[in-house]
């Protein structure tokens, strides 16, 4: 669905994205991980039209979308969320959802005078759809709550719900788990999986929680210093030496080695032999 070729985004003399190339397959939940400053959010911003690339190319379903504005990409079904949720705090949760679809009849003063019947029909349809979205996300009990009063995790669910109010093809989720408790994060994860499997949504997810990434994402793409470092399954990525050094850190690498050595020493201390069970080598007669 999305293909990025030799993408570069420079700020002054600094290359936040440095000749990055990757693909996001239709129907996938692709993870994008890497240390802080790796260029992940900048890459999202270039793909989503927030920043124009310095060089390189982005295509969606074979169409060149390089440099298109966010509202143009919105109409093509490419949406993104942000690390900090962007809601209308004084409006209710339901009203936040109803605000999303573009080109509503009631948006112009003329229509508000002379197209009242049509506006009522549209609002009734939007109200029904918003309630369906709230049911899907299991937050119907919050429909009349002002969005500004929601917790961080509830706001992330609301942002996900807003993508459901239009015909989204691909959604870029930027640190969906930031500031979210484990229970709500599981709810968000369940919603992402259901949208992917039941409604055909394609996702690309930036996240630091490797348990969350491992549960949802295949493949996982790793960035470091603006470049694509590795790609593969979550399990493969966790075993990649270059990824461990760049992202997971030498501390984890050394800890894994230390744990392995401790396990070997423990086995040797009671004479256990590989493959024979804990009782092997104890010297006890059967």
Task: Write the topology of this structure.
Layout: E1 2-11, E2 14-24, E3 29-33, H1 40-47, E4 55-60, E5 63-64, H2 70-75, E6 78-80, H3 93-98, H4 109-114, H5 116-136, H6 152-163, E7 170-174, H7 182-199, E8 202-206, H8 210-216, E9 220-224, E10 227-232, H9 234-239, H10 241-248, H11 250-269
Parallel strand pairs: 3-8, 3-9, 6-7, 7-8
Antiparallel strand pairs: 1-2, 1-4, 4-5, 9-10
Helix pairs in contact: 6-7, 10-11
In short:
InterPro entries: AAA+_ATPase (IPR003593), ABC_AA/LPS_Transport (IPR051120), ABC_transporter-like_ATP-bd (IPR003439), ABC_transporter-like_CS (IPR017871), BCA_ABC_TP_C (IPR032823), P-loop_NTPase (IPR027417). Helix content is 41%, strand content 20%.
């Amino acid at each position: 669905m999305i293909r990025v070729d030799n993408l570069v985004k420079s700020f002054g003399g600094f290359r936040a994205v440095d000749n990055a190339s990757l693909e996001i397959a239709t129907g996938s939940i692709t993870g994008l991980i890497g240390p802080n400053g790796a260029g992940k959010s900048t890459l999202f911003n270039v793909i989503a039209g927030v920043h124009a690339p310095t060089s390189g190319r982005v295509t969606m379903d074979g169409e060149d979308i390089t440099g298109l504005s966010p509202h143009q990409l919105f109409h093509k079904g490419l949406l993104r969320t942000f690390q900090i949720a962007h809601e209308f705090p004084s409006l209710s949760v339901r009203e936040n959802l109803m605000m999303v679809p573009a080109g509503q009849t009631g948006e112009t003063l003329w229509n508000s005078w002379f197209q009242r019947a049509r506006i009522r029909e549209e609002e009734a349809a939007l109200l029904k759809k918003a309630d369906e979205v709230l049911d899907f996300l299991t937050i119907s009990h919050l429909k009349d709550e002002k969005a500004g009063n929601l917790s961080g995790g509830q706001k992330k669910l609301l942002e996900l719900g807003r993508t459901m109010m239009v015909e989204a093809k691909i959604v870029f989720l930027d640190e969906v788990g930031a500031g979210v408790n484990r229970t709500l994060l599981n709810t968000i994860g369940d919603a992402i999986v259901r949208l992917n499997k039941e409604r055909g949504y394609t996702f690309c997810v930036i996240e630091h929680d490797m348990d969350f990434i491992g549960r949802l994402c295949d493949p996982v793409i790793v960035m470091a210093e603006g470049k694509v470092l590795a790609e593969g399954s979550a399990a493969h990525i966790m075993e990649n030496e270059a990824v461990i050094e760049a992202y997971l850190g030498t501390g984890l690498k050394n800890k894994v080695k230390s744990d392995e050595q401790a396990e070997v020493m423990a086995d040797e201390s009671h004479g256990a032999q590989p493959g024979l069970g804990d009782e092997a080598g104890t010297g006890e007669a059967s």
